[in-house]
Amino acid sequence: MNYSIMPHNANFIPPVQKPTPNFLKEVGEQGIRDLLTRLYSCLDKSPIRPIFPAKDTQEMMEAAQISADFFIQICGGPQYFNQNRGMPQMRGRHAPFAITAEARLHWLTCFEEALKPLEKEISEESLQSFWNYINVFSIMMINTQG
Ligand code: HEM
């Protein structure tokens, strides 16, 4: 697995490619929900915790499941996010939160930690495809300098 992080100021940002549908087939919906629970547990203890409006760990876990709805959908599953929250418009939804290049690094570092347990459960190809997606797409969430 290659968890390298693409520089946010790269001259060329490759087009975002959705994760392979095999990722969802191999991990399953519950696996994606568990993945997002691990991500938000890590974010809850991370230096970027103050960016998140959740007032306690329970609210972080609720936010994790909203995000899981999105990731299940983007991985080719049911349109839970559209049904519950409307169109994704991720850049717009992140606009109220100051996301710096450094915040992205913390976010991706937590995601790497959350993905590690899947290494022994699913194919490297699927895992790499998921990482490539968040690696590139996260560049577009940066909205604040410094
Ligand atoms: C670059 C680093 C990122 C940071 C620091 C970040 C941070 C945040 C924050 C602060 C929220 C608001 C949580 C809340 O309202 O409780 C949020 C929501 C969300 N983020 Fe991110 N995010 C990042 C990248 C991404 C990426 C790349 C994706 C998708 C591929 C994503 C998907 C989501 C989703 C689905 C939500 C929920 C939106 C909703 O409440 O309707 N985030 N994120």
Outline the structure in words.
With about 150 residues, the protein is mainly alpha-helical. It has one domain: Globin-like (Orthogonal Bundle), CATH 1.10.490. About 55% of the residues lie in helices and about 0% in strands. The chain has helices at about 20-45, 55-75, 80-85, 90-95, 100-115, 125-135. The N and C termini lie far apart (about 30 Å). The structure holds protoporphyrin IX containing FE. Protoporphyrin IX containing FE binds near residues 51, 52, 53, 66 and 107.
Structure summary:
The protein has helices spanning 21-44, 57-74, 80-85, 90-94, 101-115, 124-137. The protein has 146 residues and is mainly alpha-helical.
The number of helices is 6
Helical content (DSSP H or I, runs of 4+): 55-70%
**Structural class of the helices, strands and pairings?**
mainly alpha
Taking the sheet with the most strands, its summary is: none
At the first level of CATH, the class is: Mainly Alpha
- Beta-strand percentage? under 5%
| Quantity of strands, as a count | 0
Q: Could you say which small molecules are bound to this protein? A: protoporphyrin IX containing FE
Radius of gyration: 15 Å
The first-to-last residue Cα distance is 30 Å
Flag low-confidence runs. none
Helix/strand order, N-terminal first? HHHHHH
CATH topology: Globin-like
Query: Mean pLDDT, rounded to whole units?
Result: 96
The CATH superfamily is identified as: Globins
Q: How many domains would you count in the coordinates?
A: 1
Shape by Cα distribution? globular
Q: Mind telling me which CATH architecture this is? A: Orthogonal Bundle
